């Protein structure tokens, strides 16, 4: 193989150096990400600018630190104590996002692994503070929504001025010792049965009251009707009915004598 001309060697070296420079200078920031520039020959992290998605050209001696800036979530199991000192495991998820314009300050003060260094300790501290106010029964059943809101508020207090926004906290599971859990479930079952029994009693009472009211209404109506029906009115009504029957084309009417009340007796029908 023939040796390359000496004049070609500088060009080859230059091409290699150019490729290295371009690979260091061209930076791609993906969707949902942001970048901050680390300038080793300057003041370190540039906190004045956050670079957005797309291609960027930077000096080859600088480094672009890329972080997710969209909403993210982390889940964790936390061992906490209830108000009566019982050891409880709480499983939760938290949604958060770093402040886009302050991404440089976040990395400068808390580092690239700010989730482990900042967020996780704040969540654990908030969970211990909030859960420590409640009994196991409250944690297991009725207070779940309130606890989530209180943890969220406490986390925001812990992270105030730390360049991270917490959006939501979800308490997914509260794990109690089996003996405590079984006792709570028995108590809840008894309370539910008691509520159902009270509901049946109230329903039966209302039905009885309804029957009494309806019977009283009918009795009052009959009494009023009886008081209003005089002998004269009854006689007139009987005469009207007799006339209608006699006018019917489908009936043959024979009137013989009269009844005890003075009304005619009607025989025959076809």
Automatic annotation (TrEMBL):
Residues 24-188 form the Band domain. It is found in: Membrane. It comes from the Bacteria. InterPro entries: Band_7 (IPR001107), Band_7/SPFH_dom_sf (IPR036013), Prohibitin (IPR000163). It is a single-pass membrane protein. The chain crosses the membrane at residues 7-27. This is Band 7 domain-containing protein.
């Amino acid at each position: 193989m023939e040796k390359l001309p000496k004049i070609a060697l500088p060009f080859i070296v230059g091409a290699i150096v150019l490729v290295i420079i371009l690979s260091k200078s061209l930076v791609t920031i993906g969707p949902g990400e942001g970048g901050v520039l680390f300038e080793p020959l300057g003041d370190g992290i540039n906190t004045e600018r956050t670079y957005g998605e797309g291609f960027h050209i930077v000096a080859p001696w600088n480094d672009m630190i890329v972080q997710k800036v969209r909403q993210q979530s982390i889940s964790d199991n936390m061992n906490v104590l209830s108000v009566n000192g019982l050891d409880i495991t709480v499983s939760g998820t938290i949604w958060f996002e770093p402040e886009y314009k302050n991404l440089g300050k976040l990395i400068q003060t808390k580092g690239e692994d700010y989730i482990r260094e900042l967020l996780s300790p704040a969540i654990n501290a908030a969970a211990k503070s909030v859960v420590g106010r409640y009994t196991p029964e409250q944690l297991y059943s009725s207070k779940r929504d309130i606890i989530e809101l209180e943890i969220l508020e406490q986390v925001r207090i812990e992270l105030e001025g730390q360049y991270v926004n917490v959006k939501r906290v979800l308490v997914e599971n509260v794990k109690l010792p089996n003996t405590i859990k079984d006792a709570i479930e028995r108590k809840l079952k008894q309370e539910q049965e008691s509520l159902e029994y009270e509901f049946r009693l109230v329903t039966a009472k209302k039905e009885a009251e309804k029957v009494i009211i309806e019977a009283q209404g009918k009795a009052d109506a009959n009494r009023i009707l009886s008081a209003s029906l005089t002998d004269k009115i009854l006689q007139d009504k009987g005469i009207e009915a007799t006339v209608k029957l006699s006018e019917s084309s489908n009936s043959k009417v024979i009137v013989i004598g009269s009844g005890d009340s003075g009304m005619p007796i009607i025989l025959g029908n076809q």
